[in-house]
Amino acid sequence: MSLNMFAGSLRSLLSSTSRLIVPSAGGSSSRSASTLAHLGELAPAKGSTKVDTRYGRGPGSQKGGTSGRGHKGQKARAGKGVRLGFEGGQTPLHRKIPKRGFINFTSKTYAPLSISTLQSFISQSRISPSEPITVGTIARSNAVHGLSHLSGIKLLGEPDPSLPLPPLKLELSRYSKAAAQAIIDAGGQVSAVYHNNLGLRKEIFPEKFVGRDIKAAKPTRKTDILYYTNPKKYGYLANETTPAARKMSPGEWTEVSQSQPQPEA
Q1: Residue 85 burial (CB < 10 Å; 0-12/13-18/19+)?
Q2: Cα 186 to Cα 181: distance, rounded to the nearest angstrom
Q3: Average pLDDT in the 49-71 region?
Q4: What is the gyration radius of the CA atoms in the chain, in angstroms?
Q5: Which domains does the chain have, with CATH numbers?
Q6: What is the C-alpha to C-alpha distance for residues 25 and 19, in angstroms, rounded to an integer?
Q7: Is there a contact between 165 and 100 (Cβ–Cβ < 8 Å)?
Q8: C-alpha–C-alpha distance, residues 221 and 212, integer Å
Q9: Model pLDDT for residues 222-254, shown as the tens digit of each residue
Q10: Which of 62, 66, 63 is nearest to 75 (CA)?
Q11: In what helix (H) or strand (E) does residue 218 lie, and over which residues does it extend?
Q12: Are 21 and 33 in contact (CB under 8 A)?
């Protein structure tokens, strides 16, 4: 680049910059100099927006007349097109592939909690061993995560011999046989407590239910009834339910539960 061309471009740049920062004629002292950009000059980044295509606006628009659909045929009609997966009448791909397995929509997933993790949190004073340890206690201590999308907590594993295991009172959802026996051998108590979605949410976020009288729901599905009334599973309803009631259908169980007087708060 020659010197004259460089000098000319520099002069044009300086002149344009000086015009942008010229003080306004009648403005106040605080607004005597304008900035290089204004709100009225803001625009989307180049290429970030696209103008919608306008159909049926004459032949000059290239999308007039038939509006890009062509002449006649299935795809030219109102509600044009075929359904997803349609292959002209032949057997579509999704019917040629055999089905394998199924998704059990009634299944429940429990967050695993090992006894060693519980011991570690107790030794760090993140969980108090002198109070009943519930699902909400575990959730608020961050010993498990993602509990709001699960059905509860299941205690698993064996204790860590290098960490103390004081006598605990646990009120979790489920226990493995070895984990429950370890807590009992240490002088503690275990109880399997049922929570529905609302009850589980109340355990995790008690501050959202202040002033709301929400009673703890009892199990209604037969598998849950049989589990939480079974003393071998440490069910919390085992002591207050007779053996005959454990064989009731869900409808009979609901009628009996509603007829029983509710304890006063």
Answers
A1: exposed
A2: 9
A3: 91
A4: 36
A5: 111-214 (3.100.10.10)
A6: 13
A7: no
A8: 26
A9: 889 889 988 999 999 988 777 666 667 767 777
A10: 66
A11: none
A12: yes
- Which two structure tokens, joined as six digits, stand for 200? 């589980």
How far apart are alpha carbons 129 and 168 in whole angstroms? Answer: 6
Residue keyed to tokens 């997933």:
109
Please give the structure tokens belonging to residue 71.
Answer: 């002449």
Structure tokens at 33: 């100099």
Short-list 147, 134, 155, CA closest to 233: 155
DSSP secondary structure code for residue 171 in this structure: E
Task: Give the bridge partners for 154, in sequence order.
Answer: 112, 174
- Contact yes or no for 172/134 (Cβ under 8 A): yes
Task: Say how many CA atoms lie within 13 Å of 226 toward its Cβ.
Answer: 6
The per-residue pLDDT for range 98-119, each reduced to its tens digit, is 999 998 888 899 999 999 999 9
Spatial CB neighbours of 112, under 8 Å, sequence gap ≥ 6: 144, 153, 154, 156
| Residues in the chain, total | 265
Place of tokens 């005597």: 32
Going by DSSP bridges, is the β-strand pair 153-156/111-114 parallel, antiparallel, or unpaired?
parallel
